[in-house]
Design brief:
The chain has helices at residues 15-28, 51-62, 73-76, 83-94, 106-109, 118-124, 140-144, 161-169, 180-188; strands at 4-8, 33-37, 68-70, 100-105, 125-130, 149-151. With 194 residues, the protein is α/β, with parallel strands linked by helices. It has a single domain (4-157), classed as Rossmann fold (3-Layer(aba) Sandwich), CATH 3.40.50.620. The protein starts with a strand and ends in a 6-residue tail after the last helix.
Amino acid sequence: MKLCIFSGTFNPIHKAHLQAGQYVIDNFGFDKILFIPAYKPPHKDYDLSMCNHRLRMVELALKGNKNFAVSDIEYQNEGKSYSYLTVLELYKKYSPEGKISFIIGTDAFEKIESWYEAEELKKMVDFIVFVRSDKPVNLDRLKQRGYNFCVAEMKFNDISSTNLRKLVANGENISKYVTKEVEEYILENGLYKN
């Protein structure tokens, strides 16, 4: 099995995440994309009370899509969610064919060298990089440093989880940005109100 993972905070998961996953299915020949919500993301502030809500929203957003699956692998050890450790576990669990592919946005990829065990991680995965802004990016330095990646040619979709949380806090409708199930879950649980 060729394995592709999409790791993130998903706070909340939105349609641009799903579109990126579908783009990879359509253009790279994977059977499945494994979405991995970070339990305790090391590079972001996180609200521990939100961890289970974020996992549940990913489960709801992926429901009914045979090409997508969710993994709670980073919830099982309850430590910081380091991609290197997650990828090590995935190799043991799945014995994938070839290298694992790793979906990442340019904002995170540009900082990849600050990640835990980045030198080891770059040997273990091939990155599929999505441009996360309408500004040009230069990733030549990472290519020269031995990071193996290709840039996805998907049109930039300006949705950010940060902005969605602000919209919810202001009482605005987010139905065009998230699935119906995720929107209902956010409203039912009173998420992002403060």
